[in-house]
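Recall the central idea of this unit: under ordinary conditions, the amino acid sequence of a chain determines the structure it adopts. In this exercise we apply that idea directly, starting from the sequence alone.
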Amino acid sequence: MRYILGVDIGTQGSKGVILNEDLKIVAKTYMEHDYFQPYPNFYEHDVEKIWWGSFKRIVRRLLQQIDFSSEHIIGVGCSGLAPCFLPVDKNDRPLRNAILYGIDTRAKKEIEEINKVLGKEYVLNNNKQPITTQTVGPKILWYKKNEPEKFKQTKKIFTTTNYVVYKLTGNYVLDYTQAAFFGPFYNFNTHSWDQKICNLFKIPYKWFPSLKKSIDIAGTISVQAAAETGLAKGTPVIIGTADALAEVFSTAAFEKGEVTLIYGTTGIIMINTDKCPIMKELWIVPHPITDNAYLVAGGTAATGALTKWYRNNFGIIEQAMQERININAYDLLSKQAENISAGSGGLITLPYFSGERTPINDPLARGLILGLTVYHTREHVYRSLLEGTAYSFQHHLDIFKQYGFQISRVIACGGGTKGNLWPQIVSDVIGYDQFIPSSPLGAEIGSAYMAAVATGLVSDLKFIRRFVKNKESRCIKTNYENHKIYLEYYRLYRSVYENIKEDMHQLAIYSESSIKKEE
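Accordingly, the structure predicted from this sequence is:
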């Protein structure tokens, strides 16, 4: 029997799995970790502890669960939070903590600088998408300006997956899909690093890795990596890709028009397409598997992070009950909020508690719960938070339609789909039924599937799709009475931001100034 291993390094936790030839799980594990916030809106990881350290611990735990040698594992796939920025020196030692993806908004001035120097039209033509907090380029410039001595020592730069792959194989490579987020230093039209732009901003061209497809083999497990992980020397390792893309792969949503919603720490929404338009509000990346295909995507800054914020600050009772009666605090909060009607008694939440990525691309946006009265309870507020994330998903779907994308099916996955209330609210807001596959889901599963295809453990993508579709999906059907109610609330949701965003921005500036004074 042959096996495949998949690992995902996430923002707040890492997961791993071993699958057999029938794609059945024979071992799995999970471990929590957290990010570091040195300042508000700065998000970082200690990579030796979290990226490489978590990977090693996950693999060791998996190997303890099996009764066969690791030599029977014929391939390894890894995904991770992305895109991130990690500089290392000539000895491959990290020069600082990794700067995380779009939730880290430190490089606002550098975004303005790039747009001023190049012009927004040039950026859109070369990158097919705007420069935002999700883009690595501004963070590289921030690093150059703010940590010049470390900048001089830098020899390579990494994001999560290719750092782990480098530690496993010694090969410095990255997939085209994640490279698309390295604007303006990546040219979408030529699918290569842009030496002219590197020279313009005085960023060494030799910093950047070679590029391959996500499903290509990066190399094999080295002697050193074998000793550190317990994996067999010579085991093939694929290039891998971002966690959200690997999670989409686990749902087998490969067909044109299929939309995937991911209920995670942040929210992700993607649609498969064969079009490659210039996206002014969203992201577009080459499909990690299929030639001449693309994924148009968006990501919120806070989705599951909002429910965690609420639980930690206002769900003290539910956390205590979780310890006493062994029922998840989120399930208890949702159970109470089920009794509140659509619209949360006249509340609208703008879920911009960490600024916002797409579709407004506004790092100075701030969270808002509008309409509070003495009548409202904790249950109203919690439901309103869930509704706010659903309105954000709807905003993305509106933009898909503006670009002419035809939506054929909506598939949902992620931790937020385990309960009933949140996905029901989303279906009621967006007006589409959601299908939640009953087959195993997650970025670690998707990474294992990708490795299974790359190593020949399974024949092709159709095998994966048949495997997933043969499992009965849970269908969250739209309540059209609630949908009519939500249409009115959604209209207000859209107008509120436009009407108060200038005041929001001023508050954000006041907040940042106040925090600096307190230091």
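The mean pLDDT is 95.
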